[in-house]
Design a protein that fits this description.
Layout (H helix, E strand, L loop, with lengths): L9 E5 L6 H9 L12 E4 L3 H5 L6 H6 L3 H4 L7 H14 L15 H14 L4 E5 L7 H16 L3 E5 L11 E6 L2 E7 L5 H13 L4
Helix pairs in contact: 6-7
């Protein structure tokens, strides 16, 4: 079974942790294999914000706008006014505490994560890849980011999202359950539930029906 992603669709990668979900994201991010075709541009939100997401010496504004600079530039020349307006818009939209001028290390973990996710969506990417982006953040931050994902999808942007919390997959349009690096089920609509995902994840070893 292959993974397909439609325009304006939120696709989840689920199952027990370590079953190949990150590898799917990596293949979509760097599609070097012949069996992987990705159209359009991509943005990636890493799972470990401290090691590969946060640029700690930069401000909120600098962290947020870095991927959007090229899209906002004209003839290769940066436009500070447009960059500033974009930053303010995202800071307001996600209620990032501390504001644009705050240092990233001054923010709570939840607000740091809002900046990292906003950085991806502030770009012109057609496809946004999320690697367990809400792990360890508070419920209010999660609610804000769930809403952001749905809003961006409604505007035609595609999202592929891995979460170690299978209950979060209820926010997706379609979910692929992985086991041992292989897609073992595709769930849609009311099929998407934590109980169903867990059942499918263990079906092969328990003999339970899929």
């Amino acid at each position: 079974m292959s993974v397909r992603i439609g325009a304006g669709e939120v696709v989840g990668l689920a199952g027990l942790a370590g079953q190949g979900q990150q590898e799917v994201l990596e293949r979509l991010w760097r599609p070097v294999r012949k069996d992987t075709t990705v159209h359009g541009t991509r943005a990636y939100v890493p799972g470990d914000r401290q090691r590969s997401g946060v640029l700690p010496l930069w401000s909120v504004a600098e962290n947020l706008i870095v991927t959007a600079m090229r899209g906002l530039a004209r003839y290769g020349v940066r436009r500070p006014a447009e960059e500033g307006a974009a930053v303010r818009s995202w800071v307001d939209r996600l209620a990032i505490r501390g504001g644009a001028d705050a240092g990233m290390t001054e923010l709570s973990g939840g607000n740091q994560q809002k900046v990292i996710v906003a950085r991806a969506f502030a770009s012109t990417a057609d496809l946004v890849l999320l690697d367990d982006p809400f792990r360890g953040v508070d419920v209010h931050t999660k609610t804000d980011l769930y809403a952001l994902i749905r809003e961006e999808a409604a505007n035609g942007r595609s999202v592929v999202w891995y979460s170690s919390e299978n209950a979060e997959m209820a926010h997706c349009d379609r979910v692929y359950v992985l086991r041992a690096g292989r897609v073992v089920a595709e769930l849609t609509g009311e099929e998407i539930s934590e109980e169903r995902i867990i059942a499918v994840s263990f079906a092969e070893s328990t003999g339970a029906p899929q």
